[in-house]
Each structure stands twice: as structure tokens, then as C-alpha cells.
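Q: Hi! First time asking for a complex rather than a single chain. Here are the components, and I think there are two in total. Is that enough to go on?
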Amino acid sequence: MACFLVSGGEAIVVTAVRAAVKKSEQKKGIVDEKGKQITDPAEHGICWTRKLGWLMNMLWGGVLLLAIEHIWHGEVVLWPPFLTAATVPGEMATVLHEMATVGVAMAVLVTVTWLVVTFVADAVVKRSAKTEAAKEAEL
Amino acid sequence: MTLMITLLAAVVASIVWYSKAPNSTFSIGSLALMYWAATLMWCVDGIACLIEGEAFIEIADTAAMLDDAILGIVVVIVGLAVWAVINIARDPKRIFSKALTK
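A: Yes, that's all I need. Here is the structure of the assembled complex.
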């Protein structure tokens, strides 16, 4: 019904946080004005601007594609009140319940997956740095 | 079926991203992340359906399955369209800016 709105809310927050983090990392000389990392990820780890960019892409992308599904099923319309359920008395309680259960579960699963991806990415970068250092030591 | 088609799109986009890495001129990774996130969200939706006693993926009703398959294709096309718009706006190879300034 409107489960994707929870992830949409999270996407707005993550976008704002990423903008603040980018500004901070830019000041520290970690990223350039486009948000591209200028320090060596193997030495300093992957910057948070990039990591939060992944979460942002996941959340906005997921929200957009789920919104298409809801429009397809007639649960969301492009004119006020936007949610079809809002025109049916008593249906808003069902919508809120779905947001609190399915919507929150969706946002949590995407965020947990992102956390796992960031840990794995950092581990891969550190491992490749160690391998390169070992090769250089051999030479 | 929407879930399966989106999952397939996510796998294909990931393979393309991996084969092109580390060059990410056209941000294919963003497209893959978009499809993966939608797949995860529809998995949660499917689990919620299972809890309510419905099927995870509708296969009993042919009409509903066909409708879901068409929706899946529409979702993949919308994803590609958004990705195309982002790339046109970013113009990573500066083709538009070069063509317009000539």
C-alpha cells in the first residue's frame, strides 16, 4: 500500500547525511568537490561519501521501482491524496500498520545488506593492499 | 514474477559492472544497486505474503502471473530509463558538451 514510503524517508535522511559527510571529507582532503576519493582507499579505507552514495542509490532506486509497482496496482495515484487507501474510511490504519511492519522490514534489510557490503568492500581493499605490499617486499 | 525479473536484471547488471570494473564511466554499479534493492524489498513483501497465508510468488493464477511478468519488464525498463537520464545529465564522456560547443 505505502510500504516504500519508509525507505523513501530513510533515503531523504541518508541524502542529507551524505551531503554533510561529503562537505566534511572535502574539508579534510579525503574527497574532491565531485565527491570522488582523492586519498588511497587501500591505505585509508573507502570514504564514507562513497559508501553512503551506495546506500543512497539502493534506497532511491528501490523506492522508485516499488512506486512503479504501487502505481501499476492502483495503490498510489499521481494526484492528491496520492494514496488510494486515503479515500476509503478506516483504510489508513491498515496502511500505517503495513508501513510499520513491511515498510520498516524493507528499510532494515536494505540497510543491513549495505552494512555487510561496506564491511566486505573494506576487507577486500585492505586485503589487496596487504597482497601488494607483500609482493613489493618479495621484489 | 516481478521479483524474478528484477533479480535477473540485478544479476545481469552486476555481471556487466564486474566485467567493466574498475572503469565505471556509465555508473552501471548504480543500476545494479537499484535492482538489488528493489529485489530485497520485494523479498520482504513476499515473506509478508507468506505470513498472511498467500503465495511468495503467484504461479497458480496465469493472468496474475502474466500481469506480474509485464510489471517486471516495465520495472526493468524504468530502471534503465532512469539510469539513461542520469548518464545523459552527467554526460561522462562529455559528448554533448563537445558537440554543443563545436
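A: The helical segments of chain B are 2-20, 28-51, 62-90, 95-101. Let me know if you'd like any chain examined more closely.
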